[in-house]
Here is the input.
Amino acid sequence: MNFNYQKICLNLLKDLPERQKEVILRRFGLESGERETLESIGRGFGITRERVRQIESDGFLRLKPKLESLQNVFQHFTEQLKSAGEIKREETLLSRLGGENYQPQIFFLLTLGEPFQRVSETKEFHPFWTINPNSQETAQKVVNSFYQKLEKTSRPITISEYKSLPTTPPEILESFLEVSKIIQRNEAGLFGLKDWPEINPRNIKDKAYLVFKKEVRPLHFRDAAKLIGPDALPQTVHNELIKDKRFVLVGRGTYALKEWGYEEGDVKDVILKILRKVKKPLSKKEILEKVSKQRLVKETTILLNLGNKKYFLKTPEGKYTFQKS
Here is the structure.
């Protein structure tokens, strides 16, 4: 619905005494866009913060009879909150209702409306608005349950992967999770713990990890740098990847994620690991196929390593095994 929130607020305040009007305008940033503290306003008037609070309270009492005319506005706010499970993170709610220009006015009207309650920021939750005092308990249960799911999976998940409340619409689950500081959503729409690199990449290594997870294929460090963004220098990316145990160098300047099954080490080490794992000699063709899944190198490079008699032995049947020390 389209409301002229600026006009609504100015009409509410127009009959107030000048000092009450100025206090409320400044407290809610209705003209400047920035809310001021009681102390700041008190310094401007040369009065105490408690006196400013009294002036503000008196102003609210004068405004109360006018609120009946705003029931259509308050009903719109109520419907928005109901669609979100009766709870919405403040930042999101103000943006949804007021856009870029009228968020101070929305905050002011929510403060005046009796159905609406603001819950202040805590260590676990962002500030949010609700029309149901029990909604915080419901949100806490959802966050705790979702947290347990994340600990079990050890990876970011979508709303659809969370089955504990199958009858609850996804938009309401998202609203509950959105107020949490512990669980956050990344740009891909996946939910995870705030300190996971997939959720909040802290450095080049974490950003590179996200790029590899998205591409699901080995990448040259120069290509990875391009995908990370203009601030990622190729040599810096190369230096970071080679030191990070999450990445494996699989070719000249090309990396893959260790979690994809790639083994650390050079070509010789890869051949040794393959032979030790199968516990039997392998043909040249078998070794070439297995090593090619681990390293992006030419066949001649694999054969040169295989010819190293210090590590490998050719059986009378023409197969290869490793030298036992």
